[in-house]
Please model this.
Amino acid sequence: GGPASLSRFRGALVAAVLGDCVGGEFEGAEEVPMESVLQHLSSLDDETKGNGILEYSDDTAMARCVIQSLLARAGFDEQDMARRFAKEYSTSPGRGYGSGVIQVLKKLSSPQLNDVYQPARDQFNGRGSFGNGGAMRAAPFALAFPALADVKRFARLGAMLTHSCSLGYNGAVLQALAVHLSLQGALDLPQQFISRLITEMEEVEDDKASQNDARILKEAEKPFCERLHRIRDLMSRSKVSIEEVISELGNGIAALHSVPTAIFCVLHCLQPRESLPENYCGVERTIAYSLALGGDTDTIACMAGAIAGAHYGIETIPQPWIKCCEGAEDADMDAERLHMLYHKSSQVD
Ligand code: R7I
Ligand code: MG
Ligand code: MG
Model:
């Protein structure tokens, strides 16, 4: 489809859910042989399974809250979104939430709470979380707002409801930017795609809070920009091993060690790869490759899935995968509603 087509919206939301659901199998595993990944994925084609047997985790649970809030309020409303996070957690606490964020979600359900951003600020001795929980649910912001400035602003605020450390919320901004660009067809020119992300993140990381956090956590001056440069270096190499990707970019629960990794997975899988089945389409390659990295597989595959799905569109995604994953059909319907919201707001502008 063309830029911002319905097919791209559907692809983005559905592939994110698939990444989360199929990635759950390997979350936290140190080494994941590609053979095990392919075995897991081929079991999804077994027709006797299906009907949502693979449950989604916190990644999708929170993304669904973001989507429902953006739709219900026709824009960003922090009170409404915070309430939905809290309610979702209290209804289904067993979705595999990060151990820190649970405190925030409990505080967000208090009726006495004045400032919905305060619980997040209290995390980790007042520095806030740098986990990838803000980034894992950032894709819908790119599907709700056509203007780049809005995507950046609201992805950041949406993440800050639980992640007040800049290394957490800037990861969410990067993820939303990647989905935004992919929706426009920017992955047709991968070098320019990464250059544009660097240009945008140069500005995003150019503020006092980001500089402060980077210094305290002993990271590069602009940590996400530095990682994007590493991606560019990896892209220029003819062969890159899984071990190199993990050591250069990481596969962990911190946004800094997972958002750039997810972006790399998408870029690396734009063309067929020897280690992956020839009949795989782009979304299948991207998800399979993300799982083979091990570590935070559900989240990396979820984020990579959103970016890849926005590029390839819904048509290439295998139907049996959708049938197997809880929430994938809901995501498909939500995509249509977000598509309408997006195009409505671009007319008003
Ligand atoms: O970021 P968050 O929502 O977790 C998301 C992850 C995804 O992989 C999901 O699939 C789910 O499995 O969890 O939750 P947080 O609790 O805010 O952060 C996750 C973890 O990162 C924390 O439990 C800590 O181990 C670590 N972490 C920190 N550790 C030390 N200091 C995050 N911030 C800090 C910190 O400032
Ligand atoms: Mg999860
Ligand atoms: Mg995870």
In short: Residues 27, 296, 298-299 surround magnesium ion (ligand 3) (CB under 6 Å). Residues 328-348 form the longest helix (21 residues). Residues 234 and 240 are 7 Å apart (CA to CA). The two ends are 23 Å apart (CA to CA).
